[in-house]
Amino acid sequence: TSGSGFFFSRNEKKKWGLEARITSVNYDTGDSFGYDIALDGDTLAVGAPFEDSNQTTITNGTTASSNNSNAYSGAVYVYKRSGNSWVQEAYIKSDNNSADRKFGNSVAIDSDTLAVGACKAGSGEVYIYKREGTNWVQEAFIKPKYQLDNADEFGISVTLDGDTLAVGAPLEASNQSTITNGDNETENNLASNSGAVYVYKRSGTSWTQEAYI
Description:
The protein is mostly beta strands. The chain contains no helices and 16 strands.
C-alpha cells in the first residue's frame, strides 16, 4: 500500500487526539510510506522504502518527484511542526539511487541529524544528513570497512543519540564472540546469519567506526 502517518497530541487535560494525518505529496500505490518513522521534538522523518523515483538529490521544500522509473529505490520525507500544523521540509533520495535499494527502510533522528538505512543495497548502507537552517544536506555515507558481503542487511535498523550511531546487520555471518573496539572486525562467514551491530562516532563532520559487537 501507499501508506500514511497519523500524528496524535495530548492536550492540557492529558487527553490524546488526532493532530494530523500525513501522506506523501507524491502518494502512490506500493510506496510503503510510514514503513519506519522517527520523531524528535517538532521534526518527523518518514521512510518509504518502496518509493520509485529516479531522483538523486535532496528537495528542500514541499515538493517531490512523481517519476516511477527506479522501482523500490526508496525515499525519506521530513516534516516540521509549526503550532499544530505539519509541513514537509524535505524529500530525500540517495545520491547513488538505484532500483531495489530500499533507501528509508530505517530512519533515526536526533536534533538536526538524520540517519537513513538502505539494507538492500548490496551488504547495506547508511546515510547521514544534517539540517542547516531549514535545508538538509548529506554529511556522510557509511558502509562496514571489512564485512561487505551481500545480504548482510547492514542498516536494517539504525538508532542515533547525539554523535553516536548504532547500526544493525542481522544477517552478518562472522563467528566472532567478542567486542572489537575500533574498526578491525573478524572477516569470515562461519556463522550464517549470526548478526552484528556496528557503532560509529562523529567528530566534526567525520564518522568513524568505534565498535563491532
